[in-house]
Amino acid sequence: MRLNNFNLNKTKYFILFLAINFGGLALGSWLMDNGPTSDWYLNLNKAPWTPPGWVFGVAWTFIMLCFSWYLAELFKDRKSKFLWIIYGLQVTLNVSWNWVFFNQHLTKLGLIIIGLLLLVIFYFFITFRNDRLKYAKYLLLPYLVWLCIATSLNAYIVFNN
């Protein structure tokens, strides 16, 4: 049975996206291999506006709750293969940034990846906005704001190290 043939209600979609999104966060965290506490990262010249480490966990938890709710609203009525592909791209970019930046120390490639992730989330924000999603799209604002901050942090490291 193909995924787009499932007739899931919003609650089931919400649970599905919570599992995928938090699973992606867990995988990304595992792939960074203690990167935020590594000598490499600690010795980088970081932006003065870099938040303390605990903020990242709180921010990502809130972002993924909002994003999962948004996706449940979006996928409830739309079951296109293209939408799943865009969502899969988002998950891939989000998870891969951790490995590229923290594990491989490829800060420039990390900047490209996080920039693409920002574009994908912005694409969700501007593309899917019918009457029902008119207000649900604002659930993406925490993600967009955080990605702007994270992109600026990554860019600062690229240009100052």
Topology:
Blueprint: H1 10-31, H2 39-42, H3 53-77, H4 81-103, H5 107-127, H6 141-160
Helix pairs in contact: 1-3, 1-4, 4-5, 5-6
Task: Report a brief summary of the structure.
This protein has 161 residues and is mainly alpha-helical.
Protein described:
With 161 residues, the protein is mainly alpha-helical. The chain is built from six helices and no strands. It has helices at 10-31, 39-42, 53-77, 81-103, 107-127, 141-160. Helix 1 (10-31) runs parallel beside helix 4 (81-103), helix 4 runs antiparallel to helix 5 (107-127) and helix 5 (107-127) packs antiparallel against helix 6 (141-160).
Entry keywords:
elongated, Ferritin, mainly alpha
Question: Which class do the helix and strand fractions yield?
Answer: mainly alpha
What is the top-level CATH class?
Mainly Alpha
Q: Supply the number of helical segments.
A: 6
Helix content: over 70%
For CATH, the homologous superfamily is named as: TspO/MBR protein
Helix and strand string, N-terminal first? HHHHHH
Q: Give the tally of structural domains.
A: 1
User: Biggest sheet: strands, sense, closure?
Assistant: none
- Terminal Cα separation, in Å? 50 Å
Under CATH, the topology can be stated as: Ferritin
**Count of strand segments:** 0
Q: Could you name the ranges where pLDDT drops below 50 across 5 or more consecutive residues?
A: 1-7
Q: How much of the residues is beta strand, in percent?
A: under 5%
Mean pLDDT: 90
**What's the overall geometry?**
elongated
Give the name of the CATH architecture.
Up-down Bundle
Radius of gyration: 16 Å
